[in-house]
Fold:
Amino acid sequence: MTNVEKIKKIQDVINSKTPRFEHYSKLFDEMEDNVYNYTDYVESDVDKEIKRLPNADYHMCCCLMTLVFREDYFMNGKFRERYNSGIVTSILERMLFLLKCEINISYRKENNMKIGKLQEVNIRDLRKHEQYDFSAWLANEENIELLNEKIGLTLVDINTEAYVGSYRCDIVAVDETTGVKVIIENQLENSNHDHLGKIITYASGLDAKVIVWIVKDARDEHRSAIEWLNNNTSQDINFFLIELHAYKIGDSEPAPMFQVVEQPNDFIKELNNKKSTDTMTKSQSERLEFWTLFNDHLINRGKPFNVRKAVTAHWYSVAIGTSEACINVTLVNKDSYIGVELTIADNKALFDKIYEERANIQKELGFELDWQRLDNSRASRILYKIDGLNFNDHSNYDKLIEEAIDKVIAMREVFKKRLK
Structure:
């Protein structure tokens, strides 16, 4: 298999955002990258060996992933935990990075170009003062998108240098699809106790639900602290610890790379918040299966909009370019339909403005909509129903999903230009 083919396959699996072991095992079988003598290169302790990842070559990445596979063999279910912690995705992203570098080197050789040496550069040399330089750089649309891709959010309404008392938080933003407040603290040096205290202070003062701490190098005690916070706080509070690295070749511009060190463990948080020790309900299981298939269709169609992690919720949000509104796909099994709706969070004036254009909007779309102002609610919605959902009969799921995706694409195109 060529490097280009490997890159595509690895990227597809990353984009699927599935924790299913068999997807990753199949990937490594197809690429023939399992290292059966991996014990010659790594010890059996995943937590210890994964610290080698930032400087790992391609073969070492394969050894690390094989180690994760074997760990699941002896401790059934451990792979899902490793996926939720970010380890699996980090290994794959390192492999992608190395494959792309190899392609670039091969291209230079074929064209008799001078081959430079890939080297890591010090982030501090690039951004001399984090408050006045790096935050502004990260707030740039193309740079914040790098972080969005890494943590699975869509950050908008970005405000740099927000104050909490006499202290200043580097970045405050809103996740477009959920509306939750996100804070980002940049520390372009080794993590320390002072900044750990700051992120908790900022989260409390700003009522943030997602806390992102970006550092040059994460010390073990702070990895453990963030892991503890994720495992022992409520499900709606989420901490990310991310290392920022930068690489360059010769005199080229440095390329940044975010590496997630700790992130929310959805499996553990859901477990801690269950009212009983029962497994998922039938409805939760059915919704998870539906959204997993939905993501498969999205990827097969070239991802016309961002793929989100398949969960047990009854809705799937799609960003539309503003925190004022988003498109939601909803599963309403009791009434046997899938809803595709524009949800306006809390702005009746915006709904009224769009409502005035309803005739033109429906003409552009080619189908009728249900316009629900919902005067007794903060939110408003503009709904299209797709009949035929039945959790006990999956025979029409492919058809339903394709129609839902078509409607999302159409509604996003028509509404987005009216929400600018």
Notes: The mean pLDDT is 84. The longest strand covers residues 238-249.
